[in-house]
User: What shape does this take?
Amino acid sequence: MGYYPICVDMAGRPCLVVGGGPVAERKVAGLLEAGARLTVVSPAVTRRLDGWAGEGRIRWRRRGYVASDLVGQSLAFVATDDGVVNADVAREARRAGVLTNAADDPPHCDFILPAVLRRGDLTVTVSTGGASPALSRAVRDELDAYLARENYAGLVGVAADARQALRAQGRSAPWERWRDALGAGLRGLVTAGRLDEARKRLREQLGV
Assistant: This one.
């Protein structure tokens, strides 16, 4: 199966999580960070999920899953070790037009979740198309060590500043010019914390 990688704006998007264990907790944590509006369905949940429910950050339905839980949801995440539940959610979600991810159960997934690495606004994802999540995580960790050598979060900010300046002038720059401008010299300035100098240099190289 081929997967098309996209980044989805999750702010305010209603999502269902079926399950209340550690795997569900990890999914909820990431979805909360992205600003999703979450409903968790499970007879019992972890202490952390219980705390989020008490704070009003998630809605917890203290029972097993039923098909009506999918009403009004944009995405569904299944995090149980019950293959029957996974199959039920996947079947009913597809009927309702709700995309579904079932943890460690590719046949019941409409989409899969890559291993994610973040450096400020820079997000790097690694996927094996569901073939080996462990390998995805291993490659992510290797990239983490590589990216730690430079201040990529700062570099994103510098690049965003230059892009905004170009757009304010109603202009753009070709990819080749960006590639050359974002080279080692600029990255050295950013890593050294000389961000103002880096912003000035990048604008000059892009002709802003």
Q: What stands out?
A: The radius of gyration is 21 Å.
